[in-house]
Design goal:
about 325 residues; TIM Barrel; eight-stranded parallel β-sheet; about 40% helix
């Protein structure tokens, strides 16, 4: 006697595609939502699984179709993929063909000489592990997470090419590559016959290195761009307008956003930016996301979330229309 099929506890909203905007990723056939959800923190085994489930369901219900992971996301490392796999199995698997799921490898993941960086051994092994954790046959995008000074770039790019040809990923991407190295990687992948779909750099009002050449490379080569930390790990939100809250990321651990980084000078800029956001009828987070998205070479922005309301807020980032020349000048004056 066969077991009956499990009763689905989730049905996606029938209006999920009505308000989200989508942009073409470079010159590819893929479109991404302007807001994508990253599972860097708040989705590991140390976090509440039901909260993660609520956030993921809400994100999909409002048209966020892209979910971004990496082998080391958690904490502990690997646990974000495991939890995502659980939620996929229980809630989201009927919608797999409507989703873009990405993961990465490059940072430390296991002991020994094959557990990090950019060798073919590491990248192939890591993706095999990631697919098992998530219960997937393939991911849509697989990234090399950071450049490896000790491995020839040809080996790393040939590993991405191999992975796509094996059907374990549909597209290849790179992350944290500076302009010169990105140009070389893109050229190598094109020559191999597996074009680079997308680059994932750190970019926000407070982190603008991509404007020094990388965006030009991506625009010229027809490669998408999906910045991470567009809210400067929460600094470009209303959380720090009056100092460091005890329950904030900086207040809890300070591992990534350290209290020493939150100077009075930086907070003064945050408050001034918040004034402009209020004049625009936006939250500071919405304006910060819209500012990154003002460049058409940016396909999407990756947000993190610890509560559903943060996802809802971010989804309204483009609801107020483009910036005026005066607003952009005022923002530049603050950031100078």
């Amino acid at each position: 006697m066969t077991n009956p099929a499990p009763i689905m506890s989730y049905t996606a909203s029938s209006t999920r595609y009505q308000s989200m905007q989508y942009r073409r990723c470079g010159k590819s056939g893929i479109k991404l939502p302007v807001i994508s959800l990253g599972l860097w923190h708040n989705f590991g085994h140390v976090d509440d699984l039901e909260n993660a489930r609520t956030i993921l369901r809400l994100a999909f219900d409002i048209g966020i179709t892209h979910f971004d992971l990496a082998n080391n996301y958690g904490p502990p490392p690997g646990s974000a993929e495991e939890n995502f796999g659980t939620i996929m199995k229980q809630d989201l698997h009927p919608y797999r063909d409507e989703m873009i799921i990405s993961t990465k490898a490059g940072y430390y993941m296991w002991e020994g000489p094959y557990g990090e960086w950019g060798s073919k051994k590491y990248l192939v092994s890591s993706l095999d592990q990631s697919l098992k954790r998530m219960g997937l046959e393939y991911v849509d995008i697989f990234y090399h997470h950071r450049p490896d000074p000790g491995t020839p770039l040809e080996e790393t790019m040939s590993a991405l090419d191999l992975i796509v040809r094996q059907g374990k990923a549909l597209y290849a991407g790179i992350s944290n590559y500076k302009a010169e190295d990105a140009a070389k990687a893109i050229a190598m992948l094109r020559e191999l016959g597996t074009p680079c779909l997308i680059h994932q750099p750190k970019y926000s009002m407070f982190e603008r290195w991509v404007e020094g050449g990388l965006l030009d490379v991506l625009g010229t080569e027809g490669v998408g761009c999906i910045p991470f930390s567009p809210l400067a790990q929460g600094l470009l939100t209303d959380r720090y307008l009056h100092g460091i809250p005890a329950d904030s990321r900086a207040g809890r651990s300070g591992i990534f956003l350290k209290p020493a980084q939150i100077t009075e000078e930086k907070l003064a800029k945050v408050r001034a930016l918040n004034d402009i956001a209020q004049q625009r009828g936006q939250t500071l987070a919405q304006m910060a996301l819209a500012w990154v998205l003002k460049d058409e070479r940016v396909t999407s922005v990756l947000i993190g979330a610890s509560k559903p309301s943060q996802v809802t807020d971010a989804a309204g980032a483009l609801s107020r229309g483009p910036f005026t020349a005066g607003e952009l000048a005022a923002i530049e004056a603050i950031l100078a």
